[in-house]
């Protein structure tokens, strides 16, 4: 705007002082610096926010990227402008058709190939629901309709291209010539036509190899038949069915019979045999010759490069040549036998061509089927040789694959180093041309040194990609098994492929800068060649229409090259030079360099796109069965574990193509299925194996003192798994797979869980944690578990349900009020104390206490039944009656004490009645029965103590138990709502209950005595009255058992060891109370008799020692000492039992007999009545006082 306002005088006087140029350079420099700073800031932010950025970046996540492919904003009409109007039209028509072909090819490759290939994927065979196949096909019909339209469009374009070419090469002498075409060969147009035919061939091959699709189609047709018979059931109007059926028949005929190409050929043949447009095609000899000439020329260019190191896209062009050959045959009905044989001979060198993904195409089969007339000319032996060459190819590949991998490994790594070296150097202005040539060569060109091909850049990518695709797809197509060695080698090649792609991506900024300069340099070289040719044409004064065409074409090529190297401009240049190279405009030594420069220009201009296509590993989706083998190999060779990044990058390549899947409700379902499958395999074949191996290594290292397997690394080998933990996290879909974090979590979880099971092992697991940190760098989490016990213990509910098991497996300690497990398979014994019970009661509520006592009552009933049977036994009863009679008769002589010898004799005599297989007498079993009854009573005592403990814990926040305010009254005074009053009332009730419970508790012992006492003391249970007499033998038996158990504590085999069993004392006290026999038992003065007996024996031993001391007989002295020690132990055990029994009797009020308790109860009741009576007159006298 400012420039327009300047006056004319000032405009005239303006001059250039160079300041604008300096200012521009400064701005560009500042912008470049800004971009660098911004990129580094983004990277710093990324690393700060997420520590899990992988070595191999996901291209789709680039925060900023450079798009190298130039975009053409001018239309073809604007580009193709010369003074030669006819030439303009010809070039414009062909350029437009070629552009249309490219668009159709792109649409097919992205949309239609992928849509068809992924049909039926993402659904496992086991999870297929009835009718799911038909639903998938129903969703897919609209896609097939689009494909039908696309195929029709391709057919129209093929027809149009043929017509346009036929119009230019017309053998009819009467027809006007558009331009002189005798030396003009539009090879580019034929190449594009070949590409379009390859698209149709590919669609045919996909359909032919898609068994799932064909099966689903049949099911869908059957479903439609069912609908046709009963349309009302499915809610479909009948008039809509017929058009739909016609559409399906049309789709089936056009697409599903794998006849897309064949039908196109038939239509072409039919159309050209009866020309309606006025252009002769099938009878056009000049066109037929031109068509054949171009096929031969393209084939000659392709054949020389096929299988060579410099091969880039020749295989695709070979497929196009085969398509063109078949098209030529169908139009002109002639066969070039020599060319046909040459085409077949190529199959020996290139047995198959990968068209897309897992679709492999065999040219020999195609040519024999599509050109039956020529097939008759080839002998069967040759055909057989070609087919057998496929197997030979696979065998050779299997042998040479490992060697190829090693070669390519060296080539690619050296190329990557060269890339880094050249691209990191600063460009020198004085040697800019040489520098750009070097960079161009590193990107695309191959040079030969001493007859050894040093492949570079994209050539490596193409060669590696071809080997992988051809080998894998041929094995799959021919159903030949692949060795593990081959699989590993192919995986290595895939890694190299991705390494090439990532090298280009990593240096994308420098590559982008170089590409623009290289493009300009190549354009300059091409313009120089064209300028030389143009001068040569101008200098020749013999003007003719043909010469004018050549000049116009050269001018057009020159004008088009003066601009960005877009696809459209390069296409126009190629078409223009098809006209401009006739009449020997260029010398032979000029034409070849020009063609080479233009080829380089094609490659450099589409460098990023070509790298992406050649390094694309989306085909791996169809060969994902190799992934487990690859992971096993990585696990076995942990040293280069970092290569997994490349494999996951290859697995990610199939994600963009999956987005075109149309058979599911959403393509997300297919992606989720793929994600789960790959992660499942990765977890099974690497992560889980790694976790278990690390855990095993840590365990063996910690337990080296146990001298387990030989772990000498020189004998058994060594696998350093620490390499896996130095890997940066791997990106896959929307997650980062952090191997180090996964293993750390696994070990943390395992160590924690196992420590909770065996708390005494905490030190071992702590040591393993420290070792994991030292050896593998794993930062473990401390378990923070107590080293011995948890307060919860066994649950009251669990004990209550299995009280019969509990009382037999646990031993009671009266003084500490604790239960200890008898034996355990673990290294520790479980204990149960008041805190455990209190915690359980707090969990389940105080109501559980009464239920527990009720269960105990049921248990005691069963045990007392066995008790009664034992006491009723004739052998037992008779012995007891005999002992009672004996004691009554001799008590005066024995100082009212029951003789110890009599009890001992009873204990031994019972053994004569028989013993169990494990060596126990009937008295042993009776003792165990009483111990179990005592344990049950001990458990009831613990329940009461636990309840009091729980109540006192619950009420500890009440400040004064003697003075608790009434909340309900306070709330009423404040006039609060009814809901608040109800809540206050409930609070009062709770506080009242807690206060009473914490103060008193329930007398469970009294209840359990009361419920059984009457029955025990009844006349029908007279046999139980003898119980007090069996107590002395029982105590002798118990003491022997107790000493035996305590001695086992010091032995290695601790089976049966114990240090307490107060259940016996508790049981004896309880039963004596039930039978009201405390006085009878006390009358035996049993424990006094025991004490006297042992004291007497000990005094005798001491006297004997004094006598023997003078004789100095050491052996006898040792025997005496041992005897004294044994007597001391026995006496101590009897004393402990006496104390325990005395303590237990206190619980059952042993100071009072049943008669005294009854009298006390009667007195209490009488006292209560007296109180009531004394209070009644006071009430009645109240009126008289008034």
From TrEMBL:
Q: Where is the composition biased (Polar residues)?
A: 1177-1186
GO cellular component terms, semicolon-separated: endosome; WASH complex
Looking up Pfam families in the UniProt record yields: WASH-4_N (PF14745), WASH-7_C (PF14746), WASH-7_mid (PF14744)
Task: List, as start-end ranges, the regions of compositional bias called Basic and acidic residues.
Answer: 1155-1169
Q: Where is the WASH complex subunit 7 C-terminal domain?
A: 980-1149
Positions of the UniProt region annotated as Disordered: 1155-1186
Where the record annotates domain WASH complex subunit 7 central, the positions are 619-962
- Segments forming domain WASH complex subunit 4 N-terminal: 32-618
Instruction: Extract one GO BP annotation from the record.
Output: endosomal transport
State what protein this is by name. WASH complex subunit 4
Per the UniProt record, the source organism is Electrophorus voltai
């Amino acid at each position: 705007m400012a420039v327009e306002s300047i006056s004319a005088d000032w405009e005239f006087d303006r001059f250039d002082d160079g300041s604008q140029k300096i200012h521009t350079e400064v701005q560009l420099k500042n912008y470049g610096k800004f971009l660098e700073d911004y990129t580094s800031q983004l990277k710093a932010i990324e690393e700060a926010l997420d520590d899990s950025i992988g070595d191999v970046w996901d291209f789709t996540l680039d925060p900023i990227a450079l798009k190298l492919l130039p975009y053409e904003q001018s239309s073809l009409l604007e580009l193709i402008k010369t003074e030669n109007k006819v030439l303009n039209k010809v070039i414009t028509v062909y350029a437009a058709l070629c552009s249309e072909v490219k668009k159709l090819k792109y649409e097919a490759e992205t949309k239609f190939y992928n849509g068809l290939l992924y049909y039926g994927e993402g659904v496992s065979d086991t999870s297929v629901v009835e009718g799911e196949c038909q639903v998938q096909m129903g969703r897919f019909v609209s896609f097939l309709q689009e494909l039908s339209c696309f195929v029709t469009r391709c057919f129209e374009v093929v027809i149009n291209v043929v017509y346009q070419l036929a119009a230019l090469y017309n053998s009819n002498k009467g027809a006007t010539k558009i331009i002189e075409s005798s030396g003009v060969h539009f090879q580019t147009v034929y190449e594009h036509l070949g590409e379009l035919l390859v698209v149709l061939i590919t669609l045919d091959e996909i359909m032919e190899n898609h068994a799932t699709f064909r099966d689903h189609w049949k099911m869908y047709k059957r479903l439609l038949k069912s609908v046709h018979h009963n349309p009302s059931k499915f809610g479909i109007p009948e008039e809509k069915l017929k058009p739909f059926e016609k559409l399906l028949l049309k789709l089936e005929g056009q697409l599903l019979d794998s006849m897309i190409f064949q039908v196109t050929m038939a239509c072409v043949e039919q159309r050209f045999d009866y020309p309606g447009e006025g252009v002769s095609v099938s009878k056009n000899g000049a066109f037929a010759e031109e068509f054949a000439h171009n096929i031969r020329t393209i084939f000659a260019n392709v054949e020389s490069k096929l299988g060579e190191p410099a091969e880039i896209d020749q295989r695709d062009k070979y497929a196009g040549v085969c398509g063109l050959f078949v098209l030529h045959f169908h139009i002109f009905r002639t066969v070039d036998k020599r060319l046909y044989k040459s085409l077949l001979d190529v199959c020996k060198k290139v047995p198959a061509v990968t068209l897309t993904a897992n679709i492999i195409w065999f040219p020999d089969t195609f040519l024999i089927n599509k050109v039956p007339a020529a097939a008759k000319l080839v002998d069967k032996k040759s055909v057989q040789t070609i087919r057998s060459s496929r197997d030979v190819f696979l065998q050779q590949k299997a042998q040479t694959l490992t060697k190829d991998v090693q070669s390519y490994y060296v080539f690619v790594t050296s190329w990557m180093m060269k890339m880094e070296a050249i691209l990191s150097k600063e460009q020198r202005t004085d040697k800019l041309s040489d520098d750009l040539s070097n960079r161009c060569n590193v990107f695309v060109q191959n040079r030969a040194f001493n007859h050894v091909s040093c492949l570079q850049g994209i050539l490596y990518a193409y060669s590696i990609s071809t080997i992988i695709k051809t080998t894998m797809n041929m094995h799959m197509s021919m159903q030949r098994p692949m060795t593990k060695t081959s699989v590993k080698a192919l995986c290595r090649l895939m890694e190299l492929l991705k390494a090439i792609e990532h090298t280009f991506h990593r240096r994308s900024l420098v590559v982008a800068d170089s590409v623009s300069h290289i493009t300009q340099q190549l354009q300059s070289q091409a313009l120089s060649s064209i300028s030389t040719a143009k001068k040569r044409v101008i200098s020749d004064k013999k003007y003719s229409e043909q010469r004018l065409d050549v000049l116009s074409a050269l001018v057009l090529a020159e004008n088009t090259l003066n601009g960005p190297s877009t696809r459209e401009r390069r296409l126009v240049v190629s078409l223009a030079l098809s006209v401009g190279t006739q009449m020997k405009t260029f010398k032979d030594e000029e034409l070849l360099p020009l063609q080479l420069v233009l080829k380089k220009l094609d490659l450099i201009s589409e460098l990023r796109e070509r790298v992406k296509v050649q390094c694309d590993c989306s085909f791996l989706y169809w060969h994902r069965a190799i992934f487990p083998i690859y992971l096993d190999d990585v696990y076995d060779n942990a040293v280069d574990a970092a290569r997994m990044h490349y494999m996951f990058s290859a697995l990610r390549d199939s994600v963009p193509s999956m987005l075109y899947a149309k058979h599911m409700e959403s393509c997300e379902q297919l992606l989720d299925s793929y994600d789960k499958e790959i992660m499942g395999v990765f977890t099974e074949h690497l992560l889980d194996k790694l976790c278990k191996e690390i855990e095993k290594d840590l365990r063996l290292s910690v337990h080296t003192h146990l001298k387990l397997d030989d772990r000498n690394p020189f004998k058994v080998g060594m696998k350093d798994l620490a390499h896996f933990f130095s890997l940066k996290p791997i990106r896959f879909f929307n997650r980062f797979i952090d191997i180090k974090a996964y293993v750390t979590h696994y070990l943390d979880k395992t160590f924690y869980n196992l420590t909770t099971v065996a708390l005494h092992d905490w030190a071992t697991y702590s040591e393993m944690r420290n070792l994991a940190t030292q050896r593998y760098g794993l930062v473990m989490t401390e378990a923070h578990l107590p080293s011995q016990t948890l307060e919860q213990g066994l649950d009251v509910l669990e004990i209550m349900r299995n009280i019969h098991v509990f009382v037999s497996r646990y031993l009671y300690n009266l003084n500490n009020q604790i239960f200890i497990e008898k034996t355990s398979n673990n290294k520790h014994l479980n204990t149960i104390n008041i805190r455990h019970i209190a915690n359980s009661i707090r969990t389940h509520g105080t109501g559980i206490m009464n239920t527990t006592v009720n269960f105990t009552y049921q248990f005691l009933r069963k045990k007392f039944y066995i008790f009664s049977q034992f006491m009723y036994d004739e052998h037992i009863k008779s012995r007891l009656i005999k002992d009672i009679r004996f004691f009554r008769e001799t008590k005066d002589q024995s100082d009212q004490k029951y003789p110890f010898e009599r009890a001992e004799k009873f204990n031994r005599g019972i053994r004569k009645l028989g013993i169990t297989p494990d060596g126990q007498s009937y008295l042993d079993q009776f003792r165990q029965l009483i111990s179990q009854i005592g344990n049950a009573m001990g458990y009831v005592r613990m329940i009461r103590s636990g309840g009091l403990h729980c109540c006192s814990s619950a009420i500890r926040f009440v400040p004064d138990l003697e003075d608790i305010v009434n909340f309900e009254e306070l709330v009423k005074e404040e006039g609060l709502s009814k809901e608040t009053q109800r809540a206050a009332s409930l609070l009062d009730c709770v506080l009242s209950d807690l206060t009473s419970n914490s103060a008193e508790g329930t007398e469970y012992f009294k209840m359990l005595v009361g419920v059984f006492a009457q029955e025990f003391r009844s006349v029908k249970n007279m046999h139980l009255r003898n119980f007090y007499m069996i107590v002395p033998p029982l105590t002798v038996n118990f003491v022997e058992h107790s000493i035996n158990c305590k001695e086992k504590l010091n032995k290695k085999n601790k089976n049966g060891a114990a240090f307490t069993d107060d259940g016996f004392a508790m049981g004896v006290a309880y039963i004596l109370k039930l039978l009201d026999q405390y006085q009878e038992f006390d009358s035996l003065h049993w424990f006094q008799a025991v004490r006297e007996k042992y004291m007497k024996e000990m005094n005798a031993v001491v006297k004997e020692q004094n006598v023997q001391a003078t004789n100095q007989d050491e052996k006898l002295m040792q025997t005496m000492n041992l005897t004294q020690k044994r007597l001391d132990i026995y006496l101590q055990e009897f004393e402990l039992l006496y104390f325990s029994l005395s303590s237990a009797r206190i619980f059952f009020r042993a100071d009072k007999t049943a008669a005294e308790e009854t009298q006390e109860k009667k007195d209490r009741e009488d006292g209560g009545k007296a109180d009531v009576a004394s209070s009644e007159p006071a009430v009645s006298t109240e009126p008289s006082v008034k």
